[in-house]
Write a structure and sequence with these properties.
577 residues, Amidase signature (AS) enzymes, D-Maltodextrin-Binding Protein, domain 2, two-stranded antiparallel ribbon, binds 2-acetamido-2-deoxy-beta-D-glucopyranose, AS_sf, Amidase_dom, Amidase domain-containing protein, signal
Length: 577
């Protein structure tokens, strides 16, 4: 990313020189190949006196309040880390040219005793499909929207600015949040290049919020936002060993987010700890008149935010979890099953009850027995029972509404985007490979499928919406009600796409925690909890309890630092293993 290097060089300039001297770093920004096999590959330099690697938001806050760190220093340290890692993982799509002055303002406020809260001065990124009304682009990774002007900050961005968080930049993503193609390279966008997981650069980094999760996993940012329609927060979170929070549809406003489906889109958060992800969630959730789905949360959200539900392992004695075995667990490979069952045994030994006899009712009709497949209804011969039938129609309509508010662009419809992609095969891969590009092997078949519907909400659509919502909600709710007892949550393996695929049409929330690593690829996987609509308080409670257990058990099953396997490889597409 040459422009990015230039920008960084300019931004760092003389500030960098004096500052680098002051922190006395001796770490090379560009590690040589010699240390390829040493454990200390891409070591993270300290941030002045402060050890930023794996630092929590609370620790950053404390260091800023006791005077050992400023927000500007934090920004410079994350710039340095980005400079060190960007050539490998491309987690940042655009650096905010105003980030240092925003941080300076936050430092000045703190000096004059204005303290906005736990995110004051903390740097973050947002997935690049989330609008920012500033000196950055909002394009979903596509050249077609470059130069377009958004009407305002997305609601979630405005809320984070109010909370004092410092917008560092826009995270790379799978273009159009994966709406455009059925066979594509996860994490790739024409503007952002190929985002990669720092755990193994050759394989699918998880998506579509790939850069958001990879940057948090690589310690290149404090926390990040992503968006999910079906898996796009949970999947990259678990593949980068971070905590991912996908809220109930309607808890976080989608106003100002380049859409996929109004019925399923949700803005979620990534952190290295549950607490960090919940700080971000607390800052962004709430009613927004520009997204009327958020009206549904009225009276269902707590006064004072979700942080109050954070707890420790001792509370696990009050928990009863369900394992939907035949619905999900049965698909897990042996190695992962062994590691996750060890973790489940640990949770039981802390006093929790685990019930292995509760299922997602009707799961056979909801999800494929083999792979993630959001058109499984059609595969079974019933397009009127398929999630994709809904998403295809929604996208056509929702993108038109989003585009209608943009200035400085002639792009007004999906038709315009599709034509642009055909006209720019070399960069956007409108046609299938080899006419187009290898990242989009099947061209833009997802867009063409949406285009074919013309956004008409015919009987097939109406039935599919009703079926997918009802069957998934009933399925999860009945699994949560075991013989009349309300369970604390469903523990599920999020490496199995059918888990988040069941939560997606339901609009139900999920959280994933780092839980282990595959020995054949070095790629992490998680343990997730599912809940009913607006069950976030329970998710926070049990995720924090399990995390506390992981951290204090002396058991190493949790997050491990990235190992940068395959860091000299540049394969596109990434491998789906
Ligand atoms: C300031 O806080 C940081 C983070 O907790 C800590 O590491 C450091 O020792 C503290 N320094 C002083 C002078 O209190
Ligand atoms: C997807 O694309 C890859 C090449 O990137 C190809 O090998 C594979 O067969 C394609 N899969 C399908 C289902 O078309
Ligand atoms: C939101 O408003 C639109 C019209 O602007 C309406 O069609 C839709 O049903 C409303 N949705 C909710 C959840 O209130
Ligand atoms: C759950 O029950 C299934 C049989 O339905 C069994 O195969 C599996 O081993 C059980 N899992 C646990 C963790 O007990
Ligand atoms: C609804 O539209 C879809 C896509 O355009 C089409 O395949 C389907 O047959 C239509 N259904 C009805 C009942 O017309
Ligand atoms: C879908 O269509 C089939 C007929 O092709 C019908 O039997 C079935 O009940 C429909 N499903 C729903 C959810 O309406
Ligand atoms: C990284 O992934 C590739 C593709 O699956 C695999 O061949 C390689 O062994 C992995 N690297 C490590 C160190 O696990």
């Amino acid at each position: 990313m040459r422009p990015m290097r230039l920008l960084l060089a300019l931004a760092l300039g003389s500030v960098w020189e004096t500052w680098a001297q002051s922190i006395g770093t001796t770490t090379s920004l560009f590690p040589s190949q010699e240390n390829a096999n040493t454990p200390a590959l891409f070591p993270m330099p300290p941030c002045g006196q402060f050890n930023l690697e794996e630092a929590t938001i609370d620790q950053m806050q404390q260091a800023m309040s006791n005077g050992t760190l400023t927000s500007q220093q934090l920004v410079l340290c994350y710039m340095q880390r980005t400079y060190q890692t960007q050539e490998y993982i491309s987690s940042l799509l655009q650096l905010n040219p105003d980030v240092l002055s925003i941080a300076a303002n936050m430092d000045a406020e703190r000096k004059s005793s204005i303290f906005r809260g736990p995110l004051h001065g903390i740097p973050f990124t947002v997935k690049e499909n989330i609008a920012t009304k500033d000196n950055m682009e909002t394009t979903a990774g596509s050249w077609v929207l470059i130069g377009s002007i958004v009407p305002r900050d997305a609601h979630v961005v405005a809320r984070l600015r109010e909370a004092g968080a410092v917008l560092f930049g826009k995270a790379s993503l799978s273009e159009w949040a994966d709406m455009r193609s059925s066979n594509y390279s996860e994490g790739y966008s024409p503007r952002g290049g190929q985002a990669r997981s720092p755990y193994n650069l050759t394989v699918n980094p998880g998506g579509s919020s790939s850069g958001s999760a990879a940057a948090v996993g690589a310690n290149a940012i404090a926390f990040s936002l992503g968006t999910e329609t079906d898996g796009s927060v949970i999947n990259p979170a678990e593949r980068n060993a971070v905590v991912g929070f996908k809220p109930t549809v309607g808890l976080t406003s989608r106003a100002g987010v380049i859409p996929e489906s109004e019925h399923q889109d949700s803005v979620g958060t990534f952190g290295r700890t549950v607490r960090d992800a919940v700080y971000a969630l607390d800052a962004i959730y709430g009613i927004d008149p520009r997204d009327n789905y958020t009206l549904a949360q009225d009276s269902k959200t707590p006064n004072g935010g979700y942080m109050q539900y954070m707890t420790g392992k001792d509370d696990l004695k009050d928990a009863t979890f369900g394992l939907p075995w035949n619905s999900f667990w049965t698909f897990v490979d042996d190695e992962q099953k062994t590691i996750l069952l060890d973790l489940l045994a640990l949770i039981e030994s802390a006093g929790a009850t685990i019930i292995n006899e509760t299922e997602i009712t009707n799961y056979e009709k909801i999800v494929s027995p083999t792979v993630w497949n959001w058109d499984y209804g059609t595969t079974r011969g019933y397009p009127n029972e398929s999630e994709y039938t809904v998403v295809k129609v929604d996208f056509y309509n929702n993108i038109k509404t989003y585009l209608s508010e943009l200035e400085n662009t002639n792009v007004r419809s999906l038709e315009d985007i599709v034509q642009y992609n055909y006209d720019n095969d070399g960069s956007e891969g409108g046609n299938p490979w080899p006419l187009g590009i290898s990242a989009f092997y099947s061209g833009q078949d997802g867009f063409l499928a949406s285009l074919e519907t013309k956004g008409v909400k015919n009987e097939t659509y109406v039935q599919a919406l009703e079926f997918t919502q009802r069957s998934t909600r009933e399925g999860i709710d009945s699994a949560l009600n075991y013989k009349g007892q309300r369970l604390s949550g469903l523990l599920v393996p999020p490496d199995i796409g059918q888990t988040y695929q069941t939560a997606a049409p339901a609009g139900y929330p999920m959280v994933t925690l780092p839980a282990g690593v595959h020995s054949n690829t070095g790629m992490p996987f998680g343990l997730a909890i599912m809940q009913t609509a607006f069950g976030e308080a329970e998710l926070v409670k049990w995720a924090s309890a399990i995390e506390d257990l992981q951290l204090t058990s002396g058991n190493t099953i949790r997050r491990m630092l990235p190992r940068w396997h395959g860091y000299l490889e540049r394969n596109i597409p990434v491998l789906n293993v």
